[in-house]
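fyi for ur records
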Amino acid sequence: MKRTPTSAFLLFFLLLACQACQTTHYFLVRHAEKRDSSPDTPLSEVGWDRALSLRNQLIGKRIDAIFSSNYTRTRQTAQPLADALSTPLSIYQPDTTGSLATVLKKMNGKNVLVVGHSNTIPPLVAGLSGETVAIADNDYDNLFIVRVRKTFLGQKVDLTKTTYGKPSP
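which gave:
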């Protein structure tokens, strides 16, 4: 097949356009069940079971990065998956969700887990997807998946609301 300057230009344009084509997945969860209501309480036994369920659900999702707030319960929720993937936890301060959303938006083409709190995950979901979610005080089984697909025609964002582990009471 003989290539003309026009076909070479089209091929170059398509290759360049495909460079912009990528999908990013953000998996966002609240920490698992906590032992008590003290400020930096660890996970309860039920919480540890949920953390293992999270690991089992996400182990095949090719997670590239794991973010956790600096609280014990969030780190413990993320740690089983981090250990299984030999991926370090990136620790963030819960009061910096705005700047965290900015960091997350720059992780194009990656699969990212974020473990936070009932008052930090909803703003992150909103910042990434434009959608509003709420997490009840006794709700620990929500898994929010924000998918951002970028193509040369633009960007499409969708939110999947699902659960993991045993249902919350």
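The first strand starts at residue 22 and ends at 30. thats all i got for now
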